[in-house]
Amino acid sequence: MIYWHVFLAFFIPNIIGYGGGPAIIPLIENEVVGHYGWMSSQAFAETLALGNTLPSPIATKMAGYIGYDVAGVPGALIATFATVAPSLLLMLAAMGTLYRYRDSIKVKSMSQWVRPVIMVLMGYLTWTFLVTSIAEAGIVHTAVIGGIAAALLLATRLHPAFVVMAGLAYGAAFLG
Amino acid sequence: MLKTQGKLFVAFLRIGLLGFGGGPSMIPLVHQEVVKRHAWMSDDEFADTLAIGNTLPGPIATKMAGTVGYRIGGLLGCLNAVIAVIVPVILAMIALLGLFTRYSDQRWIQGMSEGVVPVVMVMMSQLTWDFFAKSRIGLGWIVTLLMGAVAGALIYWLGIHPGLVIGAVLVTALLRPERRSKATRQETAK
């Protein structure tokens, strides 16, 4: 049963997630934190942060790790399979048919129409992280770290991985 | 045969290990390996494959890896390329987070995992803004906010699964009459 749930938790976000990896993140959070309760939102944030310091697609990293965390090696395999296989198999099987629609306005408008919904999910996830952070680290530390992170990300061209490391370092020094 | 599989593996391993910033930012690396270095595809074929990949949901990097792998080395090539691009980093991820969990009773490790939440919050708010900005170009800000508000009410107020809401939006986008909306024309023209 757990394997079936792991499959569903990653299959659903990836089969509706138009807009690449980032669009899939709030959908995965909705399943693993909201629906199944496998992780706290702090643990999810931590996974996402460390995932962002490593290369390769974020969706498969999240799937591999969360699948492993929930149900061991089979869980990792199932979650990764559910992430990669459905759209890839569809692509290989229907290459010819899809070729005709590659410039279709309707198909292009699909990802355009989904964006506002993803935007709301992301906004809500931002809010969840804010609430979590205030509860765990307190409002002052949240404001300081958030302010520094925003300044670094917006004003400098610093790679996000370094900003994540700065957050980790701050936490180790002042929140421990 | 074996040599091709080896080359495929090395090419996609390189893409996986150098591709910081998630799937979409890896596309230039895929292009570099597939078109420039190995000439497995022409520029046009690559552009078509990418366009077809974008008609489907899910991560783009693995769709590209799988399709290129399948064309060069059949089913084995498909598996080979996908594994090369994702598995090493998944193992690194499990090791890294495993280490974290193992020492999670240490106060400073706990502090680290608290300190990183506001950073992720800022990144997520940046993504939210990105999606708003892109959506505003395509649909206009009124439609974007209206659709966002309706979706938010359905998901968070009525408790409808976001998958159903997105599914409904996708079906509507596909089934609506052919007449082009002004917004779509603008985005297509770009």
Helix-strand layout with pairing:
The complex is a heterodimer of chains A (176) and B (190).
Chain A: H1 2-16, H2 20-35, H3 41-53, H4 58-93, H5 95-101, H6 105-137, H7 139-155, H8 160-175
Helix pairs in contact in A: 1-2, 1-4, 2-6, 3-4, 3-8, 6-7, 7-8
Chain B: H1 2-18, H2 27-37, H3 43-54, H4 60-102, H5 107-115, H6 117-139, H7 141-157, H8 162-175, H9 182-189
Helix pairs in contact in B: 1-2, 1-4, 3-4, 6-7
Tell me roughly what share of residues is in helical segments of chain B: over 70%
Main sheet: strands, sense, barrel of chain B: none
Number of helices of chain A: 8
Strand content of chain A: under 5%
Membrane topology (chain A): Multi-pass membrane protein
Protein name (chain A): Chromate transporter
GO molecular function (chain A): chromate transmembrane transporter activity
Organism (chain A): Modicisalibacter muralis
Structure description:
The complex is a heterodimer of chains A (176) and B (190). Chain A is an all-alpha fold. Chain A has a domain of 101 residues. Helix content of chain A is 87%, strand content 0%. Chain A is built from 8 helices and no strands. In chain A, helix 2 packs across helix 6 and helix 6 runs antiparallel to helix 7. The N and C termini of chain A lie far apart (38 Å). In chain A, 59% of the residues are buried. Chain B is mainly alpha-helical and 190 residues long. Chain B folds into 2 domains: 101 residues, no CATH class; 74 residues, no CATH class. In chain B, 81% of the residues lie in helices and 0% in strands. In chain B, helix 1 runs antiparallel to helix 2 and helix 6 crosses helix 7. Chain B starts with a helix and ends with a helix. The model of chain B has no long low-confidence stretch (mean pLDDT 88). The interface between A and B is large, with 109 and 101 residues.
